[in-house]
Amino acid sequence: MTQLWPIALIGILAVAAAGYGVYVLVPTLLRPRWAYLFGAVLALELALFVVAPFVGWWLPRGVSTYSGAVDALFYGILAVTGVTFIGVSIVFTIILFRFTADPERRSVYTHGSHKLEMIWTAVPAGILVILSIVQIPAWLKVKNTDWLKQAITKGRTEDDKRFLQIEVTARQWEWRIRYPSTKHYDEWKTPKSALDDVRLKLPPRPDDLRFVNEIHCAKGQKVLIHLKTQDVIHSLYLPQMRLKQDALPGKTIPVWFEATEANCFKEGNEWKTGFRYDDAAQQWKKDNDFQWEFACAEFCGARHSLMRGKVYVHATEEDFLDWLKTVEQAQGAMTEPAPAAPSK
Amino acid sequence: MSESAHATGHEHGHEELSFLRKYIFSEDHKIIGIQFMFTGLLFLLLGGLLALGVRLQLGWPGAEVPILGKMLGPGNSGHRMGPDTYNMLFSMHASVMIFFVIIPLLTGAFGNFLIPLMIGAKDMAFPKLNMLSYWFMWPAIVIILLSFFVDGGAGASGWTSYPTISSSTMPMGLGFRSPAQPGSGIGQIYWLLSLIFVGVSSMMGSVNYITTIINMRAIGMTMFRMPMTVWAMFITAILQAFALPVLTVALFLQLFDKTIGTTFFLPPTGLVFGNWTTGPGGGQPLLWQHLFWFYSHPAVYIMILPAMGMVSDIISTNSRKPLFGYKPMVLAISGIAGLGFIVWGHHMFQSGMDARLGTGFMVATIMIALPSAVKVFNWLGTMWEGNIHFNTPMLHALAFVSMFVIGGLSGIFMAATPVDIFIHDTYFIVAHIHYVLFMSSMFSIFAGITFWYPKMFGRLMNERWGKIHFVITFIAANCTFYPMHILGVGGVPRRYFEPTPFATWEHLQPINTFISISAFIMGFSQLIFLGNVFYSLFWGPKADRNPWKSNSLEWTAPSPPGHGNFETPPIVFRGPYEYAVPGMADDYLPQTTPQPAGTTVPVAH
Amino acid sequence: MTLRSPSSRWLLLSGVLPILLGLLALTGCDDAYSVDIRYPLRTDWMIEKPPTLQPTRYNPPGVFPLYVLDHPDTTLFGPDRDWLIQERDEKKNIFDPRELQQETKELISLSLRELSGRPRHPKVDLFGSKYDELNAKLETQLKLDRKTLAEGAKLYRRHCLHCHGVAGDGKGPTGPWVNPPPRDYRQGIFKFTSSSQGQGERKPRRDDLQRVLLNGIEGTSMPSFHLLKSEEIEALVSYVIHLSIRGQAEYVTMIDLFKEEKGLASPTGQKIYERVRENAELIANQWLKAQESEIKPVKIPEYKSEDERLESAARGFRIFSIKEQGGCIQCHLNMGRDAQFFYDAWGSVVRPRNLYLNQFRGGRRPIDIYWRIHAGINGTGMPALITSDADLQQKEDWIWDLVNFVQFAPYPDKRRAIQEKLDKLQENMKPEQRVKLPLD
Description:
The complex is a heterotrimer of chains A (344), B (605) and C (440).
Chain A: H1 4-29, H2 34-51, H3 67-98, H4 114-143, H5 146-154, E1 164-171, E2 174-179, H6 182-187, H7 191-199, E3 209-212, E4 214-218, E5 222-229, E6 234-238, E7 243-247, E8 253-258, E9 264-267, E10 270-273, E11 275-278, E12 283-286, E13 292-296, E14 309-314, H8 317-331
Parallel strand pairs in A: 1-5, 4-14
Antiparallel strand pairs in A: 1-2, 2-3, 5-8, 6-7, 6-13, 9-10, 11-12, 13-14
Helix pairs in contact in A: 2-3, 3-4
Chain B: H1 19-24, H2 29-59, H3 69-72, H4 83-119, H5 127-135, H6 137-146, H7 186-215, H8 228-259, E1 272-273, E2 276-277, H9 285-302, H10 305-319, H11 326-340, H12 355-383, H13 392-415, H14 417-423, H15 427-457, H16 463-490, H17 509-539
Antiparallel strand pairs in B: 1-2
Helix pairs in contact in B: 2-4, 2-5, 2-17, 4-7, 4-8, 4-15, 5-7, 6-7, 7-8, 8-9, 8-10, 8-11, 10-12, 10-13, 10-15, 11-12, 12-13, 13-15, 13-16, 15-16, 16-17
Chain C: H1 9-24, E1 46-47, H2 67-70, H3 80-91, E2 94-95, H4 102-116, E3 117-118, E4 121-122, H5 132-141, H6 146-159, H7 161-164, H8 206-215, H9 230-261, H10 272-292, H11 306-321, E5 342-343, E6 349-350, H12 366-375, H13 389-408, H14 412-425
Antiparallel strand pairs in C: 1-2, 3-4, 5-6
Helix pairs in contact in C: 4-9, 4-10, 5-10, 6-9, 8-9, 9-10, 11-13, 11-14, 12-13
């Protein structure tokens, strides 16, 4: 609400200018220089896309192992479409400027040019074919859980690290997340135990830890999410991880990510998120770009826009285990006050 | 309007038709086209109001709504629009705009009015079927309007109506209400019924168009001498004929799921909505997505191809220059339509389909950009070295060309599956949709109405107000829909009642407010256009046969044409784009004019 | 610019109109309730005691069960309709506040406004110098000061209103479309409490309400709000308490007056505003007492291995099944899978929990389950196991055994383990004394 006044001011000025233009300058403007109108609008639109990244209206920070590939593809397509847009818009504006009706001049009588048609079919076709080939590696990087396949066949991930498995059940209107107990997480040191759980889609155990709307993991740790839903189609969407997967009723769909940066640390008894570790200063600094969230991206009813979750990436596996232990203690509380409940 | 209606000296000597048979239950394609047009414009108002309701919430979330607050948010909701109301608003906005505005206007109004006139026929091949196709819209209209007043409100699952939020219903015997959300009860059933009627209406129309175009062309009117409008309508009709049955089937399946207890979309594990549980089913929610998108992807081409056809004609006429690359244009339209049948999976990239299947759909989708790009280049080629007359229809057509470029280019981002992971179901998609539907199709509708208005009603629309409407709409629409690209790049999801609780997107909220203000300006400026349409009906300057000095056959008929359209059956000598023919005084040469001396206009075309 | 004809001036207007209306859209940017919204006086059926008859089904989406009382022709409820109407007419424990005299209603409304203000400016203010001390305690101990309540009202309007309604009646626009229905605060009953007061006067502690907000309620539409800041949660808890105090004062006063007007009780002649204040005083004191009456377990067993917990669970199952001990199985038929329907204190349809479902609405920590068993679940048929100090001495072990059983019951492999322990435990008992655990 506090940011409304500059927009309102600009809005009122723009409207006043438009009004002035329409009612006073229209007779003059009707002498066609329509090129100005079209050109101005197209130029402003281009300007918006150019300016947007610099005022923070752009992609959220990408922090997963495949966000780089996705973003690179995005920029590549942006470049191609940007050049096309600029080119077409310039030609378009020139046409409007130069070829206004003139009684002295006759249009050039032509039904087309075979050569031009060939060129402007072949060149875009080539560009599009290249685009479609270029994106396959990125797609495979996200979808083709090679590391998981390898883990299942060879019994180890390629870097021999333990991966975290959690079950995320979406329901109207929140995310219920089930973590393994610290004991069970320990058992995953033995690959067979982890892989059995992958195959059986993480069967429920009495000592599982259940949490709502928060995903915790460690930096550099692969997280395999068994995604389910109880009622309608939801979609797990982690913008900073560039992850999105629809949850279908009746199915458990595996989806994974690995975070490359950490964003939380323990202060006292709580974990705070939205912080970046400054290596130079050796301390955690507050940074809004490090508030990582997840949301529902498939319409699911009244509170679809309120299924907000937070992602906590711990700096080390020990820190993550520390958190897991805290949750375990809180959830095993046999009296109150319980040990401090984890992070808000 | 009626004075020239009987100017023709036709011989069939049937008795004078009653007012009811002449203007209400008419079998005359022109009247039916005009009926579709007015119905479509009426629903444009409704769809627009629904959209303004959506923008009201998005621009000022949580705020109390001025004046309308007590109606939108009665007593027990703090004078604030509730999320269920919001969901209904955006769902019905899309449904109304797609099925009751754009498709009836483009295929029903322009298809009906123009096809026989442009190919030199007296009427459609099946006039009675034509009349039925209009009147089948009325049950759809009544049902969809009634759906706003039933318990739970109108359908609220988006125009895509994915199960299981749309299809969940209580076990048999406990009524039609849905445990998923209020609007998925009786409102959703009405939505399904209404769309079934719309589908039947369109299928009837498409059969008519295909038959008419193939069988009833005038002498000399070969397929490759037809105007692009007719080609576009022809291919669109083929799209409709093949795709609509699939949608109709899907609608029936969901209808049965909701009424007689079938489980086409209910998975074997059943669903749990708190205490309400549905039993186990034998189906799969994903089935709906496949069936629905198999129709709805060709549907988006149904909504753009007629627009492209009309714009080609308008640009050529107003540039006083032949269409650049007629055959490539025809091939491009066919290519878009053909490819359009094999890309439906790109709406479902994130649904959990196998990655290899996704790759297949991705390749086909990316290739669709090619024929569209070819068309844009051809339009530019048409205007290059032409003589551009900036009248209102031409302005709208120019807006179409430039805005379609933006819409098409944004589509390439979505075709790339990894990028689609991020922008699927965000405002980037909403921006793309509105660039191709409002900024392209709707501008072409404005262009078409203004261009063919004199032929329909014998009067011209007011130029000055037409241009004022164009300027305000063009600027306001760009201010409304372009910033949505930015929201989408930021990752703001769509169909969100309240985007503000998220730290990731909080800072983008002022953009939403700006969009809402622009949307209000744009929405209300359409009243200028509607005012112009109605004012000119009675007080517009009278038009002669060919006010735009265009070549195609409809401009040789009186304005408006009478029963039977043409005074004498037309004979066609050439294609419709012979402008600026060297050696002629006039800069245009209509299709039915015999070859003037001293010219060498290609005859076989 | 010349205009063509008189009628084209209308077109001029349609040019100015868009810009003006666009500017109009800039209005209305406040987050708080509008000034003209008042807490509505209650007009829906009031239940004094839960209906005794058993319903046959849940209500369908969109209508509450008591809908039948206003729509006697409805077919949506099957046979429940006739029985509910019969219950109201014969047992006279469901009252219609609309039948009160107009003057009475106006006086109640005014008194409540004095007590609780209006949504934009809420307060809990027992007017009169003799209540000064109570008012001060409410502000400090229950955080019911005006500033907190105003904050809470704004947050409530954004997050809670559309289900729980302006007055906390659970009848917001979304309310009838979810099952279980949103809590109606106006009877002053809350299910998941940890306070040891008696059944009729038990109130939740602030901690209990906070826990519900932080964790949500599993298996219902109540989501978790733990992503809000802690000050916001505090404000919301205060606001809910405020709504509950107002609602219960209204409820008690209306029932008393209704009975007097209909001749079911003899008139006391007390002025309405006095009644409201006295009722509010009573309720406020109950809330204050609850904050100090936390149920704390006396003995906290330690289990050295899961085996010991399984043995405890086996004992727990025996307590569960044997009528003279816990006797839980009488309501939780077939472990709750065949449980019957009942009406709860709010007139909604409920069933005893299916213990194999692995769903714990009030929380799944051992202490949460302990509280449910110890004190029962307010407003429903779940009785308290402990009703006196002597009870506590004898039966606390039972509670922990039951807790362990309930926690292991949803897992098939653990059930088999429990059955094994049971077999050992029951080795020397007579066959008719043995109990068997359904394994599937």
